[in-house]
Structure formats: structure tokens, C-alpha cells
Amino acid sequence: MIALTLEEKAALGSGADFWTTKAVGDVPAIVMTDGPHGVRKQLGSPDHLGIAGSIPATCFPPAAGLSQTWDPALVERIGAALGDECRAAGVHVLLGPGVNIKRDPRCGRNFEYFSEDPLLTGILGAAWVMGLQSRGVGASVKHFAANNAETDRMRSSSDVDPRTLREIYLRAFERIVADAAPWTVMCSYNRINGIHAAQDVWLVTTVLREQWGFDGVVVSDWGAVTDRVASVAAGLDLEMPPSGGATDAEVVAAVRDGRLDEAAVDRAARNVARLAAKATESASPAVAFDVDAHHALAREAAGRAVVLLKNDGDLLPLRPDDSIAVIGEFAQSPRYQGGGSSHVNPTRVDIPLSEIGALAGSVSYSHGSTADAVEAALAADVAVVFLGLAASDESEGYDRDHIELPATQLELLEAVVAVQPRTVVVLAHGGVVRLAPVAALAPAILDGALLGQAAGGAIADVLFGVVNPSGRLAETVPARLEDCPSYLNFPGEHGHVLYGERVFVGYRAYDARGLDVTYPFGHGLSYTEFAYTDLELSGITVRLTVTNTGTRRGREVVQVYAGLPTSTVARPPRWLVGFADITLDAGESGTVEIEFRRGDLAYWDARLDRWVVEGGDYVISVGASSRDVRLTGTLAVDGDDVRVPLTLESTLGEILADPVAGPRVVAALSSAAPSGLPDSGGLGTDIMRMVADIPLGRVVAFSGGRIDRAHLEQVLAEANAAR
Ligand code: BGC
Q: Do the Cβ atoms of 395 and 339 come closer than 8 Å?
């Protein structure tokens, strides 16, 4: 760094072109590209909206589908495969994973994000980063932070209180930084509580670097920098895409006239240089990746991502000799990825109709006009109806204003079910859709969300039982959009989005309010069944026996939730603290052991500005979804020492709970009371309840000078010192 001039250091802090950093001195240039579920390497004109073409790459399941695997080991393998494709394409940093929380089902970009739950998001995101970076390719965890809507995304302020930010919106980022050490983090477009993420010294420096120890590059989302000098001062290292040198000159001028500390420019240049060295040292000469093997991996992941929502009368799996009427346009032109910067040019696409044809005895096809479809359904043993959202219904760049499937699709389904009771629905969509009408009609439903280029093969595998489904919802399917906790605060107005539902996001809210949902978080059936027995809790380790009580081999995802009924802060009845899977043959039993982290019991205490684990008896619920709890136990936890300094603004209740201040303050109050205090032991219970919330300073004021304020201040100072 020392060897570089100020101009050179400033130049390192912005790109050379849309996807490349600058080569400066002996610092090499590196190539970045989208991400996340495939490599979008553009050779022609560049864009960040997925408009111009890119080289062929495997389109793995987007996060909406991938998260439904609940399988970090599989996600890590996909990360590694993406790393191999990056190396083959000469890409040093892949712009992903997208780990924003699905706050509201209408967010147009939910297909690129994992879950409504921060733990599931953090675990899967960390696995993705570890896989990718194991190949010497850097990740860019995005979009930091609170970027949960597309509407007005470049200006809008996400107005979030500190507790909610930490517990819901920052938690996955924190976990990924701690567990996977991503090479880069990408700042989001939006503002947080009024400040642009890329200019937020608290977010980028205090939280990310100082509190979490992040030592990589902070890069802007493409076009997120509105004031480069303020951004560099706040902790941003790299502005993308570049501004033709204009902001480099602004940085130089700001240092020269004393508005910007040169140390900040040094930090940015050093971080970019270190990234460039690391990325180019580990880069191999271009080697072709194994297209077939990656397609097979995409199919395996897609198969694991399919959620069997419903299977009345064991309609599924289909029998090989069933004659099948395949209905719906998506059977021929599958919907398997989302629109915008993540749009991948697939190496190949499995067509569901052909894949079903390869496994079925006889297949007919109707693209979905009701006369046609009814006839086909009537003539077959089973109807398989493909429903879902069109690509134009949802995308990066805009949000939906409803969560309905097209009415024509529901009419079609109704007509088919009327003539063919053995009807299976296969769903494709990036964001959640309201499924109550589908669930009321169809006896069997498979939900893949978006499954990537091998969707067709994977769906056929699950339909015929080649794969026994084990996917689980990573997001609640609400009964109605109006029930969504963010319903009244989405997408905001006049440049502000109020996160008024606070920590009650997704199942946390539905469970707290006891609302009916169509399918709960974590739900997913199998072609076999599992029994849970013998729960043992030893500290933070949960152990249980799972038995496959059905007739075929299958995989079960066991979820562990914690709850603290005696919590002193508003908390959901239960929140996810761990999960694990087990694959068992029919009749086989196995032990599942899940060790969660004590920190996952914590809430963020805004008074103390830190995590606090409350003491008490936690209810540990083990189950197959947030609503399907099979076993519960109690875990006694010693809490953290929480000592908020006592002042005259502290209430009598708070002060009397303190062993040092309490008795001395009671003594002072008693001696000042004209007829002493009721109850010789101190304040009587009823009186105590009435006065517990009165700040001590107000009691002093009421006393008309009979209580010695200075004496109480002295008592509080001594009590604080003794803590
Ligand atoms: C998106 C990012 C993407 C970048 C580059 C932006 O519009 O928000 O996720 O990585 O463009 O294409």
C-alpha cells in the first residue's frame, strides 16, 4: 500500500468496468459475476438486470427451492460446484448468496432468498459460502442489510428497531461471517433508518467489522453508492460498477482538503488488494467443468427440494402402469428460475412432460384449455396439473401486490378434479402463493418453488417415487395475505417501510397469534412415516430416536424449537434453534443428535446493546414443522447477568429488586413517610404492584422535600459500584 500513490489507492476502490476491478501497480484485476444459483458470466454488453445474454452455466435450484432441502451438506456441494464453474469461466467472486429474510411474500425477489427464518438462512448461507470458497472463489453475501422489498429499493428506508434488526435481519449475516468468513459482503441499495447502507458507519464498520470481525471487502450493490466519500469513510471498500473515475477523483480531493482521513482510503485499497491477491493466487487455469455431473447434482438437489404438501389416500407415488394426463403449459415450458440479475443461461433444461413420459406407461398432454384438459383427465388414470406463476408475475425490481394464482388456473383445476379425483398438482413459483383453494380441490400437491434446470427430471422422480420426497417449507403458506404480519406495512410509503411487526416475522407471528395457516413453516410429507421417541436433553444437546414406521426408505428432517414462556420480552412461542436429518429404511430406527448454540436462545437487549440469554425453563419442542411438535422437554438455563445501571429514572420495582439498593431505598422511604410504610416488612404486595412502575425520582418529587435526593443518589451509586 505504501508503494501506491493516493490516486492509485483511490482507483483501487472502484471497478475498471461493470464486472472487473482495476489492475493497479502489482495488484491484479479480478472478475465478479452473478450469482447466486449459477454463473452469469456476460461476454457482450453488461447489465445487472439479466437482460443481455451470458455463457451457458448450470442453473441450480434458486434459494427458494434450495432452502426446502434443509440440507447444508448438499448446499455446500452446490457451492463447490459453482466454484468449479467460476474457475472454468475465469470468475474470482460470485455475487451470492442472497440471505435477506422473506419478510413479506410479496417481495419480488423472494425466490433469491432462503427463508423467513434467520437460523435456517444462516446455516444454509454459510454452507453455500464454504462450498464456493473451498474452490478458491470468493462469495459476496448480499444484500447487507434489511433489503426486503423491491419497491423503490434504491431510496427506500427500512425503518427497523435495533432488536428486530439484530434478531431477524442481521442474524444470518452474523452467522455466515462467523462460520464461513466470506471474502466479500455486498451493501444493499436501501437506507436503514434513514442512512444508505453503503454509507452507514454503524452497519459497515461498528457491526460488521468491529463486532463481527469481518476482514474482507465490503462492495456496494451495483449502483448503491450515492456519495463515495461518505461511503469510504463509513467503511465501504469497493464501488461497483465504476463511475468512469469521477468518484476516484472525489476521494482524492476529499483527502487533500481534509474531509476524508487517508487511513480510510488505505483500508479500502488494502482490502481490495488482499482480495485480488487471494483470488488470483487460488485461481486455476481455466478447466472445463463436468456439465453432466453438475446437471445430475442439480437434479439431486431439485428432487430433495420438492415438498409433498398433501397426499390424501396415498395417491402418490404414481404407479408405472398408470396412464397419465399431464396438463398445463409449465409441463412443456417449465418455470424454474427468477428474473433479474440472477438469470442464468442453463446448460440444458429438463422438460417435465418428457421426463414423466420416460417413467410412465402412457402419457397424454393438454396445455391447459379447459375442454381439452377435462377430456384428457377423464380418459386417464391420473391427472397431473402444473400450476404456478409466470415469469412476469415476479422478479427482481418489482414486488407483487397479491399472492394469488391466476384465476384461470384454479378454474382449470376445478374442472379437472370434477372428472378426475386422482389429481396431483405440481406448483412452480418464486414467492409464496395462497394455496387454500388448491388444497381444497386437489388430493395431492407437490411444491418445488423454483427448482433450476433439472426441475423436470426431479418432478418426475418424485411423482414416481424414484425419490421419496423430504423437502420442507422454508416459509409459511398463510391462509390469507391479510394475515401476514407485515401486511399493513408493505411496501411502505413516501420512501419509508416501517418494520412494525418487529421480531414477529413468518411463523413467529402466526404461532404467536394462533392463526390458522394453510401449511406451516417446516411442513413436508413423505411416502413413508416417522415416529419420534426418547427425547433426552443434556445441556444444549438434543437427542431422540426416530423410527421409520412406513414401508419405504426415506429421509426425515427433525426440527428443534425453543420457547421461554416466562420471558420478560415479547417473544414468539417457539423459534428454530436447530435441525438435522436422518435417512432410514422401512422399520429402521436411528438416533438424531442436534446440538444448538446457547446464543440462539438469546434476544437482543436494546438497553444494553448486546445479546442476552434469559435464565429460566426453556421449552424445547422437537417436531416435523413449527406446528407439528412431537416431543417436548424442559431445559433449565442459567441466564446472563443483566444489570442495567440504576438511576433516579429507574422504577421502584427495578430498584427494590436490587439486593444492595433495595433495602436502603425502602429504609429511606419509610423514614420519610409520615406514618411509615404499610406492611412492616417493606412495601405491601398490593401497594407494591401499584407503585412498582413509578420512577424513584418522581417519588422524591412527590415527597415535597422529605426524601433526601442526594442520599438516594449516593445509595444508587454505591449499588451500581457493587454490581
Ligand atoms: C442486484 C445484485 C447483483 C448486482 C449485479 C443488482 O441489481 O441487486 O444482487 O449482484 O445487481 O448484477
A: yes
In the residue annotation, 26 being an active-site residue is answered as: no
Domain match, 630 and 661 both: no
Model pLDDT, residue 286: 65
Question: Ligand 1: distance of its center to the CA of 302 in Å?
Answer: 24
Amino acid at position 522, single letter: G
Pocket of ligand 1 (CB under 6 A): 34-35, 48, 95, 142, 221-222, 341
User: Which ranges in 236-290 belong to alpha helices (H)?
Assistant: 246-256, 262-282
Q: How many CB atoms lie within 10 A of CB 641?
A: 8
Provide the pLDDT for residue 285: 65
Q: Identify the burial level of 38 via C-beta atoms within 10 angstroms of its C-beta, where 0-12 means exposed, 13-18 middle and 19 or more buried.
A: buried
Q: Which among 556, 573, 553 is positioned nearest to 623, based on CA atoms?
A: 556
Cell of residue 543, nine digits: 437427542
Residue 642 located in a structural domain: no
CA 27 centroid distance within chain: 35
Query: 616's torsion region: left (phi>0), alpha (psi -120 to 50) or beta?
Result: left
Look at the chain and report how many structural domains it folds into. 4
Q: Which atom of ligand 1 is nearest to the CA of 95?
A: 10
Element (DSSP H or E) covering residue 428: strand 423-428
> Which entry of 84, 159, 200, 221 is annotated as an active-site residue?
221
Residues 390 and 324 occupy one common structural domain: yes
Mean pLDDT score across all residues of the chain: 96
pLDDT score recorded for residue 680? 44
Q: What pLDDT, on a 0 to 100 scale, did the predictor assign at position 288?
A: 86
The last residue of a domain, from among 519, 551, 584: 519
676 grid coordinates? 411509615
Q: What's residue 689's pLDDT?
A: 80
Q: What is the pLDDT of residue 684?
A: 60
Q: What is the pLDDT of residue 223?
A: 98
The answer to whether the predicted template modeling score (pTM) of the entire model surpasses 0.90 is yes
| pLDDT less than 50: residues of the chain | 680
User: Residue 385 belongs to what domain range?
Assistant: 299-519
Q: How far is the CA of 390 from the CAs of 140, 428, 431, 560, 625, in angstroms?
A: 29, 9, 11, 35, 29
CA 302, CA 293: separation in Å to the nearest integer? Answer: 14
Reduce the DSSP state of residue 164 to 3 states and report it: helix
Instruction: Indicate the top mutation candidate among 32, 110, 221 to test ligand 1's pocket, ranked by most ligand atoms within 8 A of CB.
Output: 221
Q: At which residue does the C-alpha cell 381444497 appear?
A: 440
Torsion sign across C-alpha atoms 213, 219, 224, 228: positive
Gap between the Cα atoms of 169 and 175, Å rounded: 11
Residue-level pLDDT at 44: 83
431 CA from centroid of ligand 1 (Å): 19
Residue in this structure with the C-alpha cell 442476552, named with its chain if needed: 612
Cα-to-centroid distance, 644 and ligand 1 (Å) = 43
